[in-house]
Each structure stands twice: as C-alpha cells, then as structure tokens.
User: What shape does this take?
Amino acid sequence: MGFTWLDYSVFAFMLFASTLVGVYFAFFTKRKQNSTAEYLVGGRSMGVFPVSMSLIASYISGISLLGIPAEIYTYGTQYWLVMISEALVSVTMAYVYLPVFYSLNITSSYEYLSLRFNSTVRLFGSCLFLLKMMLYIPIVIYVPALALSQVIGINLHLITPLVCAVCIFYTSLGGVRAVVWTDCLQTIMMLAGAILVVVIGSRDLSPSLLWQRNMDSGRIDFFNWEIDPTIRHTVWSVTFGNYFYWLAACSVNQAMVQRCLALPSVRQAKMAIVILAVGIASIVSICCYTGLLIYAYYYDCDPVSTKRIGKADQLLPLYVLEVASVLPGLPGIFMAGVFSAALSTMSTGWNSMAGVIYEDLVKPRLKKPMSELNASRLMKGIVVIIGILCTALVFAVEKLGMLIQAGKSLGAITAGPLLGMFSLGILFPSSNSKGALFGGIASIFLVAWISLNSQVAIANKRLVYPVKPISTSGCNETVFPTEVDPSVTITGYDDVLPFYRLSYMYFTFIGTITAILVGLIVSKISGGNDTSSTDPRLFSPWIRRHMERDLPKKEKVILEEHKF
Assistant: This one.
C-alpha cells in the first residue's frame, strides 16, 4: 500500500501553496516585512477569522491528529473530557490575562516580566519559553515524518529536512502574516482530512456496532472519579490537571499571545478566543471519535501485535490506507492534513521564538539601536538557525513514549514555572522580583526532576501503564507477544519512585503551585512589593478593582487614569 499520483498531487499542492503564501507576503504585498511590528504582530491590524484559524491550527498539531486516536484506542475515552478544561481556560484567558497584555501595548509577552519585576526575571522567562519550544517542536516535526514513513515507506529522517525546509522558507520570508494565512489554509486541509476519515470510516460501521465493540472492551470510560494521582487519567486529571497545562499554553505563551496581539482590540481578541474554544472542541471530538472507529475496525486483530506497525501512534495512517480504496486521493488529503497541522505549529513557534530572541535577548543589550530593516533581517536569520537546530533534535524523539504523554510531560518542565511567574505578577500585587525568580527556579527543578525521570522509566519499560484489552482472534498473520501487559498496574516496578508515577496531567499544576508558593514566601521575607508605585495596568482587571476599593479617593483618580 502506498501513494498514487493523485495522493502525491494533493500533498504537493499543500506544500506548494504554503510556499506561495510566504513568497506573496515577502515580495508582492503592499505591507512589507521590514519592521519588527509588521514581522511579529502584523502591524496589529489582522482580522479575527485568520487569527482564529491560526490559533486553532497551532494547538491542533500532528501530535493531536495522530496521538489522540492512538490514546483512545490504547487507554479509552477518559481523555475526551479535556474539552471541559479547555473551555474554562478560554474564559480565564479572555478576562484575566489577555487584557493585561493589551493595556500595556507590548510585542513580547515576556516584556511584561520586566515591567512587573525586572530584566533578570524577563530573561529567565524568555529562556524558559525558548527551552520549551526546543523540547516541543522536534516532537511536532517527528509526527508527520512518522506518518508519511508509514504510508509510503520512506525513511522518516529523509522526510524531516523536507518538512523543515518548506516551513523555514515561508516563515522566515513572510513573517506573522504568512504564518497566519498559511495556518488558515492548513486548518482547512486538516479539517478536510479528519472529517473525510470519519465519514469514510463510518460508511460500513453503524454507530450501534461501533459503540458495542468499544463498550465490550472497556474503552467507553468517561467517569473515573478515583482521586489517586498516580492513575494516568481520571476525571480530575483531565479536567483540573489539564486546565493548568492548557492555561500555560494559551494565556502566557508568546506563540499564542503574539497572534492575539496582532488584532486591533481586546474585544476582537476575545472573539478569536471563543472561536478557538469551539474549534478545539470540534477537532478533539473528531480525533477521539476516530480512535473509537479504529478500534471497532481492528477489534479482533490488533495491528501492533502482528507487527504491521511498530507503535500505536501509527494506527491512524494504517487505518487510512485500508479504507482509502473507497475514495482515491484520501491518503494524500490525510497526509496533507497531518503535515498542515505540523507546519502551522512549527511556523508559529519559530516566528515567536525569533521575536523573543530579538526583543528579550538581543535588543536590550544593543549599544546602538538597530534599524527596523536590519532587525527584521536578523529575525529571519534566527528563524533559519532555530529551524536547523530543531531538525537535528528529532533524532532524540523516537526514544519517547506515547506522543500525547511525552509532549505534555516535557512541556510541563517550563509551562508550570512560566504560568506561576506570570500569575504571581498579574494576580498577587505583593509579590516581587526575588519571589518570581526563586519561585520559577524552584519550580523548574522540581518538575524537570519528576518529568525526565518519568520519561526515562517509561523508555526503559520500568514504568508501564495498564491498557485496554486487545484481541488477535481474527488475525491471519503471525501474532507476536505485546510489550504491554494489560494486567500491569500503575505501580509498575518497585524501583520506580512514587513521584515518577504521578499522572503527567498534574506536572504543570505542580510547577505552577510551586512557583506561586515559593514566590509568595520569598517575597514576604524580602519585603514584598510597594503597590502604590506600581502601574495598575500590570494587574488583572479584577485585581485592579479590588485595589481601587482599598485606596483613598485621591489615589482612585490616579488609578482611573491608568485603566484600560
């Protein structure tokens, strides 16, 4: 099984169209990418629709398109409830965090840390963001390479440079406008591929039969109310725990904030966030339902057990190939969708990383101001360099476990500390720079210790999670022993410490709470913060109103003048 000429044509069209968008915004549009404001935030004049599509595309990476169906197939439907936390995060982002960034009219979200604390905290936060993206983007690159290698048999290490070369080209040339508009195109391709797979897969499988097969295997499992934090997924971990991971990914992440700041007003940004919440819920549901379809199709012959594929994350590409005969070109549409999801996340990440490197690391240390033209050229060069570095790091990704778990586990190393430091500044007026710095440092060491050791234990097969039962009773191929025994409990082996057994969903929560608690304690010991001399725009609207009630009448007038 492999690609036909039609599949190659669809796939090539997606890459060619993405390249054309970069060329257009670099050479033919009236608004040239020759200033930092234009290159990073599109002159703050972007429209709600393209920005919304870009936000959706950045979140739904190839990790989601391939990883979520594999998650449902392997562990059941408990993960589906992440939509609850993601809806709550949208409200929190719109009314707590985003108004602060808009009122300050900043380009880099980490500029806030220098305004609220000092340049040292800003530098620390910027470095954490860069570390996070360097850990995350190689996984994003690996996913489509894995899928395409499964479909047409090409070595994934040959595919990786191709993906990165196209992305580096249009990201470096076209700036945020090229990123946003290619994201729109890629979101359409991604949705088309995902919906077609569901429609074709459901053609010969009635909803009742699909439900029955998944119910019989125990995969319909939405409401595990156990409070044991070592259980991989429960209602509490996928709602409460995931809330903090998604809050960090949206509210204070430069890659997300930068697109919101490209809109003219906070009202339009809130509209984009509403569309983002609806889009995420829709695509996550499609991916989860696809996981149920895949199990119902392979319910009596697990393809991992027969070594037709090497990992559960390859289930969806195999499934697409086997149902593709009904619709010529479906594998090409599917692969274009997976690559689109990856390209959008990569381009957004690289554009935001270039902005952070210039605004937070380079610009403050220049003895003489750099011209806007030279600054935009420098950022284009930065995109090329970090793109090459991320490509090189792909070789380490193959050693990780399930894509969804690996991505969130490694991302939590920096997500928790960053969310904790921003929350200290926005929600706790008494916190100071020493508290933010020590809180962030304590948080990153704790979460890195837990997360990395957990991933090492999984890679070495010392920590094995219980999976839903599989069957090979209908197989004609040779069946090989599976590496994961469904009877293995969460405790794994005795030499795995309890901290490493914690559900990865709680890692960001642990990091956030550690940063806030340590930050408040250190701030208290070091004298706190003089709120009377602090710009009130640095706090969330709710905190501003609370502060206003406690101020004398004269100071209320001053606060009113600073309101956004």
